[in-house]
Amino acid sequence: MIYCQLNGRVQLPLRKPLSLGQVALTLAPASADHLPLPCPDKPGVWRVTPIHLTQALQQAFPGEEITFLGAPVCYVHRIRSHVRDPFRLLRTAAAFLILFVGSALGLAWFHSDVDMPRAQLMVYQLVTGQEAEDPRRITIPYVVGVAAGVAIFYALPSGSRSTPMEVKLSAYLSSMEETEGQDIPRDS
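^ thats the sequence. predicted structure below, dont judge the formating
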């Protein structure tokens, strides 16, 4: 009896062969981790299904019964070897600038819609009992609080919990794999 549990995803550099041990955990009479699996040597996302594993395992262990557990498919990301990207810093800065300007405009438009300066002055007067001499006394702590709240909620990890940003990125990666994942041709 052979038990096989597919991993969810694997990254594999181009020109490296794919083996069963990279895409699945196996419990077999002998080591099956070295068994080769078909995978095109082209960049992209490739689906490895239990059928591919069954073919390799039945050739190595004829007559053994195979049971699959866990994920129904393993996505193999064929990647180019890590080449230094000279424009990465520039692209990162441009993306940061676009996000920063967009979020600043969004907040500014929201504040103008609800007349935030007047609302802040009213809250200050309700709390202190006197009118604010300088609106920056209210505006600066408010801006710092909004920025800190967004950073803490979206970006800063808290020990064992995932941040909302990590959850969204994981969901995006899963959707991308389902959409772009290609079946491995039979002649591979």
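The domain at 2-81 is CATH 2.60.480.10 (eubacterium ventriosum atcc fold).
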